Amino acid sequence: MSIQDTIVDRLRRQGRGKVFTPKDFLDLGHREAVDQALSRLARAETVQRLGRGLYYYPKLNKRLGIAIPPDVDEIADALARQTGSRIVPSGATAANRLGLSTQVPAKPVYLTDGRSRQVRIGNFVVVIKHVAPKELPVGNRTSATVLQALRHLGKDAVDATVVRRIRKALSSREWSQLLRDARYTTDWIAEVVRKIAEDQTEGVSHG
Q1: Domains of the chain
Q2: How far apart are CA 119 and CA 75, in angstroms?
Q3: Which of 104, 109, 188, 203 could form a disulfide with 90 if both were Cys (CB 3.0 to 4.6 A apart)?
Q4: Which of 100, 115, 105, 125 is nearest to 50 (CA)?
Q5: Burial (Cβ within 10 Å: 0-12, 13-18, ≥19) of residue 202
Q6: How many helices (H) and strands (E) would you count in the chain?
């Protein structure tokens, strides 16, 4: 198989909706060959070129037959892989992503230990803002999103509705990871996470 065919095969196996960079395919060949393959796929409209070195395997609206815009977390993950840095949502962006806030940020802001930049995707801009590594929460993206959202809301704003929405948003595996990661955060946030996890366990056992 050619590099182009192998890229298409891998994308199909991963499923639509993925955002990726040439770096994700350097195991298949030299950078120049990968770039050429992706350029051909973009011209054929198999993938969409979002920006310099950033591509999207579009998810389609079945009823309208048009591409759905990429998920902003997918974009952030691709940029993190591209630069080898950590990128997590800011507090306001995290709260909105979890449905804990009705305020929609005009520009989604993500924090990174890499360099600051702004990435324009169609009609919206994703802001990547450099912060000191100690300001980034421990854990994977899901854990970081929850911890950032709780910190943004503040202790007094964490009510039954917030608890219910967080509980609903996470799988049992994600809860296990979050419990481990919460050990390294502020005491009140760690306590909230433990309390929600206990309620989750009780609900499952009673169900």
Answers
A1: 3-68 (1.10.10), 72-206 (no CATH)
A2: 9
A3: 109
A4: 125
A5: exposed
A6: 8, 9
What is the spatial distance between Cα 107 and Cα 144, in angstroms, rounded to a whole number?
Answer: 19
- Of all helices (H) and strands (E), which one includes residue 47? none
- Whether the model clears a pTM of 0.85, i.e. scores above it, the answer is no
Give the Cα separation of 49 and 53 in Å (integer). Answer: 8
Closest C-alpha among 170, 181, 7 to residue 97? 170
Instruction: Identify the CA nearest to 18 among candidates 67, 59, 65.
Output: 59
**pLDDT tens string 111-170:** 999 999 998 887 889 999 999 988 888 888 899 999 999 999 999 998 888 988 898 888
Percent of the chain with pLDDT over 90: 59
State the average pLDDT over residues 183-200.
Answer: 85
The DSSP string of 67-135 is EEPPPHHHHHHHHHHHHT--EEE-HHHHHHHTTS-S---SS-EEEESS--EEEEETTEEEEEEE--GGG
206: left (phi over 0), alpha (psi -120 to 50) or beta: alpha
